Structures are given as structure tokens and as C-alpha cells.
Amino acid sequence: MPSDEELMLAVGKGDLNAFGEIVFRHQHSAWNIAYRFLGNETDAEDVAQEAFFKLLDAAEHYRPTALFRTYLHCIVTRLCLDWVAKKQPLYTSKLPEALDPGHTASEKLIFVERDLAVRKALYKLPPNQRMAIVLKYYEGIGYREIAATMEVTEKAVERLLARGRASLEEYLRNFLEK
Amino acid sequence: MHCEHVRKKLNAYMDVELSEATMEKIKIHLDNCQDCSGALTRLQSLINVLEEVSTLEVPKDFANRVLAHAYERSKGAQSMQRKHVSVYRWWSLKLFTAQTAAAAAVLVIGLAIGGVMGWDTWHNQGIQSVGKSQMEQVEPTAIYNLDYLTDAPKGSLADTYLTLASATNGWEQ
After folding, report:
1. This prediction's pTM
2. Closest residue to A16, CB basis, from B15, B45, B71
């Protein structure tokens, strides 16, 4: 199976099937970052889609100097930050479509309430802190990669995460174990 | 290690982003400090809440929509490129045709002017040659009615005398 970097080089030569493979591999990641950050499904789709188009446009000049995943995350992150700088996204409290059928009705209600609270709390954070939290806890990437993605130092990432977590702890204290 | 120092490093400790030596020192401190281990538990609880949030699936057909747009854009770009090339070719062709037409026009005009001038020259030469032969046969004074410049212009006394004398003596003029 070709690596992401090999696929990108093929895209650069005009291979749209290789582009399709990249989209299928990374659609969840791109959409997830955008959705967690923007809190709105429509905006998230626009941003994720735009990120793939930017990838396609840049493919001709792509050089595999860094991990492809970081490259894509960097594009999505920039688009998200630009998006909130230009317009305030409309936060929508969309519920998950299917909750685990193994839970009781009251448990489901608690989960729904907690999900909404987390999304609202995330949405209250300043954009940089929110993005660092999203990349760390929803993409599971380390400080070094977050720093490369957000184009800041690792120390800055540590500070952003610490401040973000302190605020979230305050916003979500009702849901935390005592 | 003091509590203040540990609290500063607690986030990085939980994310396992510290050196092994620092991780070990903090672990020893946490084992002996209830306040700091409580802070770590709260932090861990927060992370659990964040990570347990249900994930929304990527919208159905998201990838297909992206690919459809990509193909459209690709086709659009190709057609733009083709259009650009065809416009360039059309323009080149036009330019070539205009240049050729201009050259042909200059040639035709040149030939026409040359022809007219040549014909005119040839024609004038003809007239001149005809005039020359006529001049050789006829006296200039007769052609241009300059006979009054002769010795005995018509109607003059000399002419009358000569007419009478020739009639009397049988002379011919």
C-alpha cells in the first residue's frame, strides 16, 4: 500500500485516484478537527472540503519534508483559525445520531447533557487553546507535532494546553469526579 | 521536588511529555503528596470527560462530494488551459493571417504601382516615338502653324508676289 507521501507525489502528477485515496484515508481526521473546533457541522464540512482542495492545489509543489499528517493538520488548523477570525461560526448543539443501545434512558440523558456541556466549554476557549486541546485529545498527537501544526514552540503548546485545561476544569466542574 | 514545581509540570506529566528522569521525580512526589495527586486525579477526570464525548461521524458522501468537486475543478482547469491554448492558437493564427494579408497587400499594391508606372512609361515612349517620326516628315512650322516665321507668310506681300510670279512663269511653289 503506498504511503500518504507517495500518494501526494502521484497527485502532484495529476493522479486524481491517488487524491481519492488520500481523501478516504484522512476525511475523518480533517472533518473531526474542523467540527470539534468550529462546533458546527456545515462550517466543518466547508473547512474540511477546502482543506482537501488546498491539498490538491499544492500537490504539484509538494515535497515530503514532513509527515503528511502534520501537513494536512496544518492546512485544516490554518483554515479553522482563519474561519473564526473572519466570522463567528454558529455553534449548533447537534446531538450524536446513535447512542450506545446498552445504556438506560437516564444514562443516555446524562451522556447527551455532558456532550453538550463539553462542546459549549470548548467553544468558550480562545481559538489557540481550543485548537491545541482538539489536536491533543481528539487527534491524539504529541506536543512536537502540535507545535509543527500550529507553527509555535513546544513550550507554547504546553502553556496553551495548561491554560485550556484550567478553563475547561472550571466550565465542566459539575461533570468531574470529586 | 516542591509542589509548585510539580503542579507546573503536571499537564506535561499526564501527557507523558517529560524526560524519564523528570517523570520519575514527579512520580515519587505524587506518591507522597495528597494535594498534588488530587490535582492529577481531577486533571485525569477532565481528560476522561473530554475523550468520552461521543464522536459525530463524517457526513455521508463527504468524500464523494470532495472528489466530485475535485474532478469538476480538474476538468475546469483543463478546459481553461485548453481555452487558453486555443485562444493563443487563434490569436497566433489571426496574427499570422494578418501578417500574411498585409504582406500580400503590400506586394499587390507594389506590383500595381510598378505596373502603372511601367505602362505609363511604355505609353509615353510610344507617343514620343510616334511624334518623332511625324516630326521627321513634317516641317515644325507647319505642325505648330509657325509659317508666319517663314520668308513669305500667307497673305503677305511677298507671298502674293510669289503667287503671281509663279502663275506668270509657270513656277511651282
Report:
1. 0.67
2. B71
Three cell numbers, residue B143? 505642325
Residue located via cell numbers 509555535: A152
Answer yes or no: do B12 and A158 touch at CB < 8 A. yes
Contacts of B19 (CB under 8 A, 6+ apart): none
Q: Which residue of B has its CA nearest to A26?
A: B63
Domains along chain A?
4-175 (1.10.1740.10)
Hey, what's the cell of A11?
497527485
* Per-residue pLDDT tens over the stretch B46-75: 999 998 887 778 888 899 999 998 888 777
**Residue A178 and residue B129: Cα distance in Å, rounded?**
133
Please name the helix (run of DSSP H) or strand (run of DSSP E) that holds residue B51, with its range, or none.
helix B34-52
Is the complex ipTM more than 0.85? no
Domain boundaries defined on chain B: 3-52, 79-137, 140-169
Distance CA B9, CA B3 (A): 10
**Nearest-by-Cβ selection for B53 from A97, A99, A115:** A115
